[in-house]
């Protein structure tokens, strides 16, 4: 069970909180093991939109696998807003020191900065306060005009709706792109990647369409990309003929179902290789019988990006 603890600061923006909370709540509804908690320095927490919230005042003990998220607050300026006590900042710092992940939405990055977690790191925040964040934490590198930035176990996002993108990415890292895609579909949002990185995920590149049948086919391929998937079985599961599925899939994604599966396999294999796996081991792990096909697809991808 992963605990996701939201640290609520007075005058917080509801969407900064609700967006990521909805992602992890939907993940839990879909069988992933997440438990949400909400803490604050005072039980009653006013919000920028006027809806009062209640939270626990007990700061829980966490494990390295747990996550702390600091939603942003109304901040025409960072200075003199979003105050937090020294013990709360020490709790943030201790969780990070123990190997845990800390994340922020919008002005929440300032809380991480006050905890000393931005020094020497790349980070981002809402465009209205980017300059001030850079001045307040000169040892940090503020990345501008991106959705979110990951630097080790410190994750910051630009604000408001980008907290959804950040949370979907964290789910994808832990459970794979298929899980993130299913949650995005349930929430009726478009899963995006960070603006300063290559759009590396095939799932994300090829999900910007409105064909429900193709989305359902992609869900099946995402979940079983390492298995042998016969086109006839895939079409039967969707309730279409093989020819109709292939035609609709190509019209929506620009790929055949097989080519889409190969892209998923290749990208997963690339990740395994960067983590130290041999090409042969990575090929077997993603469903190739040997490394020859993986090498061929990697070569094709390198030529296309050259």
Structural summary, described in words:
Keywords: Transcription, Transcription regulation. The chain has helices at residues 14-29, 86-97, 108-114, 130-136, 162-175, 177-187, 202-205, 212-223, 231-238, 242-253, 257-274, 279-285, 291-305; strands at residues 2-8, 34-40, 44-45, 53-54, 67-70, 101-105, 122-123, 141-142, 148-151, 154-157. With 306 residues, the chain is an alpha/beta fold. It has 2 domains: 2-175, Class I glutamine amidotransferase (GATase) domain (Rossmann fold, 3-Layer(aba) Sandwich); 198-305, Homeodomain-like (Arc Repressor Mutant, subunit A). The strands form 3 sheets. The chain has a 6-stranded mixed sheet, with helices on both faces. Strands 3-4 form a two-stranded antiparallel sheet. A hairpin with a 2-residue loop joins strand 9 (148-151) and strand 10 (154-157). Helix 8 crosses helix 9 (231-238). The longest helix has 18 residues, at 257-274. The radius of gyration is 21 Å and the shape is elongated. The model has no long low-confidence stretch (mean pLDDT 91).
